[in-house]
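2024-03-11 09:14:02 DEBUG pipeline.ingest accepted 1 chain
2024-03-11 09:14:02 DEBUG pipeline.ingest length=351
2024-03-11 09:14:03 DEBUG pipeline.predict start
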Amino acid sequence: MMGRTILVTGGAGFVGSNFVRRMIAAGAKVVTLDALTYAGDRSTLAEFEENPQHLFVEGSINDRSLVQSLFAEHKPDALVNFAAESHVDRSIDGPDAFIETNIVGVFELLEAARAYCRDMAPTGFRFLQISTDEVYGSVDTGQSGENDTLAPNSPYSASKAAADHLARSYHQTYGLPVLVTRSSNNYGPYQFPEKLIPLMVLNAFAGKPLPIYGDGAQVRDWIHVADNCAGIENVLTNGEIGKIYNIGGGTGVQNIDIANRLCAIVDRLQPNPTLRASLITHVQDRPGHDRRYALDTSRVECETGWRSQISIDDGLEQTVRWYLENETWWQGIQAKRYSGERLGLAAQTGR
C-alpha cells in the first residue's frame, strides 16, 4: 500500500479504525470520513492527529458533494466503505437510520464514485463495500457461499443486503470497479461496548450480570478484527473486480461458550472471590434472532492467499487484556454514550 491514497468511510468506528491503523502502518495515506454518530469516536484515531499520512474529516456519506470534494482534492486510489449502522438490536428499535445510512448512504457513495471514475479517477481505482455474513440469514447446516441466496432476517441485515445489491448493480450497469467483502462476527480492540464480547468483558470487570439472549446456543463464526482487516486488504489488492468475498474465522462457537471463555480469562487476569460465570443471566431473546452463521471462505483463500491467523483462544485473551489496559477509552464511552442497557425490545413491547 506504500504511496497509495485510500478514502476510508466510517474509519472512526470499530473495524474501520483498525483498518486505518493497518493501512497507515503499510505506508498508505488515509483520508478518514466519519459522521461521529454514537459508535464512532475520534479518540480511536487520536494517535494519528499529527501524522501527515492521515487526515480526518467529520461528515456523512450521505453528503455527496462532500464526498465528491474529497475525491477531487485527494484523488484516492480506493474507497473502502465501513460506514454503517450495525447493531441488530438498534435496528429493531429504530430501523430508519439503517435505511438512511446503509442504503441511501451507499447510493450516494456509488454516485460520487461513478462521477469520479468518469472524470478523474486514477487507473486501478477500486470501490470496496464492507458487508456482513448476516445477509445470508441463519443456516442450519453447512456454510454460506458467495453465490447463495440472501435471506436477511433483521432490518440491519436487510439494509446491508440492499447495499450489496446496489454495489453489484453499479458494476454491472456502469462498470464501476466494485468489490464486496462479507465478514463474520468481528471482535477485538476498540469495539463499541453494546456488542456481545465487549459487553461481557466490561460487565465481568464490574461484577454486573452478563446477559445472554435465550438459551445462548446461537453459533457465530468469530474472527479477530486484525484477521478481517488483513483479508480486506488482500481483497482490495488482489480481488477480482465485481466479485464478493467471504472473510470468516472458521470458528463456530455458541454465545454461551464465548461468555464462559471470557469469564475464565477475566477470573485469571483480575481475580475475584466471585467467579464471573456465576454472573451469566439468560434474558428474553431478540426477535428474529438468527440461530447460526457459517462462511465458506475458500474463494478468498484461493484467489488472494488470505488465511485466518489468530485462534479464538488467543484472540479472546488479547481482547480482554486490551480492555484491561485501555480503561480510559471505554469508560469515556460508558459515561457519555452507552452504559450497557438492553436494546431491541420494541417488537415485544409494541412500540
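2024-03-11 09:14:41 DEBUG pipeline.report The domain at 5-188+224-249+293-310 is CATH 3.40.50.720 (Rossmann fold).
2024-03-11 09:14:41 DEBUG pipeline.predict end
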